[in-house]
Amino acid sequence: MSAVATPARQASGGINTKLVNRIVIYGLLALFALFYLMPLFVMLVTSFKTMDEIQNGNMLALPKAPTFDPWLKAWGETCVGLTCAGIKGYFWNSIKMVVPAVLISTMLGALNGYVLTKWRFRGATLVFGLMLFACFIPFQSVLLPMATILGSVGRFGVTLQNSVGTSFGLGNSTVNLVFVHVVYGIGFTTLFFRNYYEAFPTELIKAAQVDGASFFQIFRRIMLPNSMPIFVVTVIYQFTNIWNDFLFASAYAGTGDAMPMTVALNNVVNTSTGVVEYNVNMAAAMIAALPTLIVYVVAGRYFVRGLMAGAVKG
Amino acid sequence: MSTVATSQIKLTPERSRTSVRSRLQDALPKIVLAPSFAITIVFVYGFILWTIYLSFTNSKTFPSYVITGSRAYQRLWGWTFDTDPPSSWYTSITNMGIFGFLYILICLALGLFLAILLDQKIRGEGVLRPIYLYPMALSFIVTGVAWKWFLDPGLGLEQTLHQWGWTSFHFDWIKNKDFVIYTVVIAGVWQASGFIMAMFLAGLRGIDGEIMKAAQIDGATTFQLYRRIVIPLLRPIFLSAFIVLAHLAIKSYDLVVALTSGGPGGSAWLPSNFMYEYTFKRNEMAVGSASAVIMLMTIVAIIVPYLYSELREKPR
C-alpha cells in the first residue's frame, strides 16, 4: 500500500506537506499507544506502591520506594471472601482446570476436523454447521440446565462416595468446569482444525490408504506431524478463553475452594470489609493477567491468528 | 474399502459381505465424530430447548415443569420505566442498545482509523501493533479492575488532573447511574478495538496495490482513494467485524460485574446480568430463562444468516 502523499499533493505541497503528514500520523499513533498502555501502566505502578503513597501521591507517578509486598500479600495473605490465604490456591485451581480442558478440547477438535475434511460423509456440512453455531450461542441460554445437571451429578457423586468409597470425581467443581469448557469449546477447536485440514492435500491421504494405512495411522503419522501451527493456535486460543472465563466459573464454582482465578480476583476487589488495599488488588489483577499476557508476548502471532480464525471463517 | 473424502459411501453387494472388522473400519470416522456431535446436540440444543421450556413455567427457586403459559414474558415486558422502581429489564435492554451501538460503532471507526494509519509504511509498526492488541489477551475481569481504578473519581483520572492544577475537572460517570453504562463502553472499546484494527489491517494488506496505483495516476486524493476504493473493498471485513462485535456485546457480562458491580441500583446491567441475577440470586428462574431466550433469539437473528451464507458460499 502506498504512503499518504499522492503524486498530485507532492507536486503542490512538496516536502513540507509530506513531513507534516508524517508528524501527524506518528503523533496520533503514539497518542493511541498511550491510551492502550495507560491502564496497564497504572495497574503495574500501583501494585508496587505503599498505601500511603497511593493515597497521597499521583496515580501516574512511578513508585518512590518500590515495594514487592503487595504482590506477596496478594499471592499469600489477602482475603477472598472469608478465607485469608491469598490467591495462590485459586491460581492453581485455574491451572488444574485449564490444562485438561485445553488438551481434551484440542484433541477432540483435531479428530473432528480430520473426519470432517478427509472422511467426509453425507450430512457432514450440517454436522459442522450445528457444531459451529454452538460457538456463538449466549451461554446464558444453557447456564441453568447445566447447573441442574451438575447438581444431580454432584448428588450422585455423594451417593457413590458413601456406597463405594469414591465419587470418581463426580461433583468435583474443577472436574465440572473442565467438562463444561470442553463441551462449549469443541465447536471452536473443530472449526480451527477443519479449516486447516481443508487445505491439506487429500492425495497424501489417498496414497497412504492405498498402502493400507488405517484411519488412526493416517491421523498419527501424516496429519499430526503436519499440524503443529494449528495446534499452537488452538491451544493458545483455548487457554486464553478458558483462563479468562468468568460466567461458567462464577455459576458452577462461584464459592468455596474450587474458585478459579477470575472469580477469586473479583471477590478480592469487591470485598468491602476493612480498608481497601488498592496496591494488593492491582497486584492480584496483574497475577491473574500474567499467564495470558506472557502467552501473548511469547506467541502473539499465533494468538492473533487464533482470534482471526475464530472471527472469519476460512 | 471406502474412498476418502468426496465420494459418498455406496453399499455394493461385495461390501455387505465384508467382515465385521472392515465394516467397523468404515464406520470409524463417524464413531470418532459421534461423541462430540452427541455432546453438542444434548448440551447445546437440548439445553436450549430446556431453557425455552422453563421460560414457560412458573419456576422460582427450583425448576418447575408445569407449563403456565407466557407469564414470564408478560412480566418481563409488562414492567416499564413507569413502574416504580423502573424495571430492571427495561434498564438492561436500554443499556444494551446504548452499549451495543456505541461499542460497535466506535470499535469499527477506531479500528479502521488505526489500521489506515498503521498502513502508511510506519517505522515501528512491529512495536505499535502488539500494544494496540494486547488488551484482547486480558480477561474482562482484569480490564474491569484496571478501569475501575482509572475512572474512580477519588483516586484515578479526576484526582490526577486535580493535582496537575485542573481543579474544575469533574468525571464521576462510574458512580453516576445515568452515565455508568458509558464507562462500560470505554473499557469495552479499549479491549476490543485493537483486534478490530488487526482485522482491518489484514484486509488492507490484501488489497491489490495495482488498483491503488491506478487511482493515484488518475489524480485521486488520499481521502478519495480511501473513501471510494479502499473502504468499499473492505466490506467483507466490516461484516466479519460487525458479527464479532455484536456477538461480544450481547455476551458481555463479566465487564459490567468487574467494572461497576452492576452500577448504582443495577443501572449498568445488560441482559446477561439481568439473566444471572434473576436466575441465581432473585429466585425468578422462569423470568431469567425468558430473558436468556430473548438473548438467544437476538444472536440467532444475527448469526444464522451469516453462518448460512458462509457455509453455502463454498459448496464442496
UniProtKB/TrEMBL annotation, chain A:
Annotated Gene Ontology cellular component terms: plasma membrane
UniProt cross-references to SUPFAM superfamilies, sorted A to Z: MetI-like
BP GO terms, sorted: transmembrane transport
InterPro entries: MetI-like, MetI-like_sf
Subcellular location: Cell membrane
Main location: membrane
Entry's transmembrane regions: 23-45, 97-116, 128-154, 174-197, 218-239, 282-304
Topological category with respect to the lipid bilayer: Multi-pass membrane protein
Keywords: Membrane, Transmembrane, Transmembrane helix, Transport
Family per similarity comment: Belongs to the binding-protein-dependent transport system permease family.
Descriptive protein name: Carbohydrate ABC transporter permease
TrEMBL record, chain B:
Membrane topology of the entry: Multi-pass membrane protein
Keyword Nucleotidyltransferase: no
Domain of life: Bacteria
Subcellular localization(s) per the UniProt record: Cell membrane
Keyword RNA-binding carried by entry: no
Keywords (A to Z) from UniProt: Cell membrane, Membrane, Transmembrane, Transmembrane helix, Transport
Biological processes, Gene Ontology terms: transmembrane transport
CDD domains: TM_PBP2 (cd06261)
Cross-referenced Pfam families: BPD_transp_1
Record-level GO cellular component terms: plasma membrane
Main location: membrane
Family matches, as Gene3D superfamilies: MetI-like
Residue ranges crossing the lipid bilayer per the database entry: 31-53, 96-119, 131-150, 179-204, 225-250, 285-308
Family named by the database record: Belongs to the binding-protein-dependent transport system permease family.
Record protein name field: Sugar ABC transporter permease
Organism in which the protein naturally occurs: Mesorhizobium jarvisii
Record lineage: Bacteria, Pseudomonadati, Pseudomonadota, Alphaproteobacteria, Hyphomicrobiales
